């Protein structure tokens, strides 16, 4: 299995977790577990980065505008990297605010009946899942989650329109050679 195949498996796992987390956003515990799954996937990706392989480095997410001209703008890597940068930042913000709101209750690290600050009612306790009300942290979390999905839609649309062979490879539709132009 080549590195590109492994990246594809990681990518599919992350994408499925993010989509499911978004779809279950109003459900409660399932959402929180899926959110922790996203956090674990991100942690794995950061540790994987430390192997030093250029295909896994942070520069994949850092837009470079060198050589960008009006004539080549749509095919230039600047757009796809800018979108990846946006995904990385909004994913980080969504996950961190989600974990801060949960305060370890889902993992059993804190007493589930004691509310995390975002959910505390008058006596500092939590009345249950129905109490997932929106404090400023909840608002920020929701905004970042929605922003993330917006950028993902742009990411998918752009790649399908302008880097179709690579996009189809990531969707398990095309074979490995299809992805060659971007990475070995
Ligand atoms: C929730 C959904 C998705 C998320 C969160 C997501 C996120 C990401 C991330 C983080 C990367 C960088 C991968 C890495 O280096 O580890 C990436 C790359 C990529 N994604 Fe997605 N993605 C999603 C859906 C999709 C879909 C549906 C497609 C297919 C059209 C796709 C096509 C690609 C391609 C082709 C790359 C490589 C881009 C390049 O090398 O320039 N993604 N995606
Ligand atoms: C990519 C990951 C995630 C996405 C896309 C996401 C998305 C969302 C969205 C859109 C909402 C608003 C639901 C609504 O009221 O309409 C929400 C709420 C919530 N999320 Fe997440 N979330 C993610 C990760 C997490 C994580 C890691 C946790 C914590 C373990 C978490 C905990 C919560 C909680 C407690 C709420 C209710 C807060 C409120 O309604 O203000 N989320 N999430």
pLDDT averaged residue by residue: 87
- SSE series: HHHHH
The molecules bound to the chains, other than polymers, are:
protoporphyrin IX containing FE
Characterize the overall form: globular
What's the β-strand tally?
Answer: 0
Span of the ends, CA to CA: 12 Å
Low-pLDDT parts are none
Give helix % range.
55-70%
Oligomeric state of shown chains: single chain
By helix and strand content, what is the structural category? Answer: mainly alpha
Strand residue content: under 5%
**Sheet with most strands:** none
Give the topology.
Blueprint: H1 3-23, H2 29-49, H3 77-102, H4 136-162, H5 164-170
One protoporphyrin IX containing FE is lined by residues 7, 10-11, 14-15, 18-19, 45, 60, 80, 84, 87, 152, 155-156, 159-160, 163, 166-167, 170-171, 182.
